[in-house]
Amino acid sequence: MSKVPDIVTPPPGPRSRALLEERNEYVPPGVYLVQPVSIAESRDAVVKDVDGNVYIDFTSGIGVVSLGHCRQEIVETICEQAGRLIHSCIHVANYEPYLKLARRLTEITPGGFKKRAIMLNSGAEAVENAVKIVRQHTGRPGIISFENSFHGRTYMAMTLTGKWDPYKVGFGPFVPGVYMTPFAYCYRCPFHLEYPGCGLVCVHHIEKSILKTQVPPGEVAAIIAEPVQGEGGFIDPPPDYFKEIKKICDDHGIYLIIDEIQTGFGRTGKMWAIEHYGVEPDLVTMAKAIASGLPLSAVVARDELMKDVYPGSLGGTYGGNPIACATALKVIEIIEREKIVERAASLGRKLRKRLDELKERYEVIGDVRGKGPMLAMEFVKDRGTKEPYPEAASKVLKGALAEGLLTLKAGLYGNCVRLHPPLTIDDELLEKGLTILEDAIKKIR
Ligand SMILES: Cc1ncc(COP(=O)(O)O)c(C=O)c1O
Predict the structure, then answer these.
(1) How far apart are CA 427 and CA 350, in angstroms?
(2) Using a 6 Å cutoff on CB, does residue 234 contact ligand 1?
(3) DSSP label at 10?
(4) What angle do CA 141, 142, 147 make, to 5 degrees?
(5) Domains in the chain: how many in total?
(6) 214 by DSSP, 3-state: which?
């Protein structure tokens, strides 16, 4: 892929369209699709479709291939492990990659206390297991989650998700014991206040309202939160937000589950996004970037929570597959060796500067936010009324695709364009991608 980007036929080209037809015939529309093209191959921050179009990738497969697509070292690790042991099942017999990874994850997550780790297959499964662990340990059924959150598509993860359409449409009844509270979506404050004058009323709402009107604290096992809401539109709460949440947890014997599935492994310019907030969670869920595209997730939690989990009550046939675990170990090695977290922080500074400039130039951008390189722009019809402008976000995605850039949407109103480039993207491609992005924004009417 020598020329990047390289649009040889307007996307979606004929082969992409044929595959789209096949998809529409055999795959349910419930499996959503952002871009109408079919990918044939990818490398680093570049993706090629089946019609020969070459794109810059600002999606990383939704924040998964943070080290770039098909990195040689990762491919070699996968092949080596596949030649040795593809599957054994951790319930049948031990194997080293699982145990080594469990140890490494307890070492690299926040908190100097003793921890343990369990490996699963997907983000949603990690969330399910975190909830099982706190419920069994505390004997309390309640879980507090946040509006505008996303935790996955299985029943508990979906119940915890704070967005109705499309995730919950027609799927009720949901799992009992879940209570929703507003998140610190400061651009659209649910209490119509401004930080810091608001005094973090959204946090105090938990004690003053949820724990008084919906569920007593003695029946709440955990609060679960994304440190930066991902699908919700890259919403990063104010600096003292999680310290205040943790205080409530500590006052009532409630555990704090931090969902780092989208934010972990350097995505926000720190290894874990919660590090921006100086808080040590009791449990961390992680997935996506953990294994560079192989299906793997994990829950890392305090030893006190993990050591007495009822034998046989956790796990699964595939959780912690040897190839995925060996790959995750390699991912962690590369992150440390190549100082990927520092690189992400520097990428974040460059991106922030450019997106802030775009906001100055284009009225349709109401807000630019996020942490490190995990940044989004929220599109509005009017900066005063903040009326969401989802059509603008769609136009940006379409316009960018036509010129050779893959991007993603997000947000409660579908009006955010979020950037998820590989953290290893080089400056030249980044600049080219940003120019395409600006050109697409320019064309919005
Ligand atoms: C914060 C968060 N939690 C959970 C999930 C669910 O992960 P998965 O799609 O792997 O089940 C996601 C996926 O986007 C996520 O961003």
Answers:
(1) 9
(2) no
(3) P
(4) 150
(5) 2
(6) helix
Q: Which of 224, 261, 294 should be mutated for ligand 1, with most atoms under 8 A from CB?
A: 261
Do 102 and 140 lie in one domain? The reply is: yes
pLDDT in tens, 87-123: 999 999 999 999 999 999 999 999 999 999 999 999 9
Give the integer Cα–Cα distance in Å for 158 and 113: 31
Decide: 262 in ligand 1 pocket, CB within 6 A: yes
Cα–Cα nearest to 106, from 330, 321, 306: 306
Q: Tell me if 1 is assigned to some domain.
A: no
CB atoms within 10 A of CB 280: 18
Give CA–CA dist 332/340, Å, rounded. Answer: 10
Dist CA 267 CA 276 (whole Å): 12
**Ligand 1 proximity of 150 Cβ (cutoff 6 Å):** yes
- Counting from 1 in the atom list of ligand 1, the atom nearest the Cα of 125 is 11
**Residue bearing the CA closest to ligand 1, atom 16:** 262
167: amino acid identity, one letter: Y
Domain extent at residue 420:
14-57+339-442
Specify whether the CB–CB gap between 135 and 300 falls below 8 A. no
Q: Which domain CATH number covers 259? A: 3.40.640.10
CA of 123 to the centre of ligand 1 (A): 5
Taking the model in full, what pTM does it have? 0.98
Is residue 51 lining ligand 1, measured as CB closer than 6 Å? no
Question: Which of these three, 276, 302, 337, is where a domain ends?
Answer: 337
- How many A from CA of 265 to the centre of ligand 1? 14
The pLDDT assigned to 445 comes to 75
- Ligand 1 center–CA 153 separation, angstroms: 8
Q: What is the mean pLDDT of the chain?
A: 98
Buried b / exposed e along 309-325 (16+ C-beta atoms within 10 A) = beeeebeeebbbbbbbb
Q: Is residue 1's pLDDT more than 80?
A: no
In ligand 1, which atom is closest to the CA atom of 288?
10
Query: Using a 6 Å cutoff on CB, does residue 378 contact ligand 1?
Result: no
Q: Hey, which of 149, 159, 288 would you mutate to test ligand 1's pocket, going by the most ligand atoms within 8 Å of its Cβ?
A: 288
100 and 239 part of one domain = yes
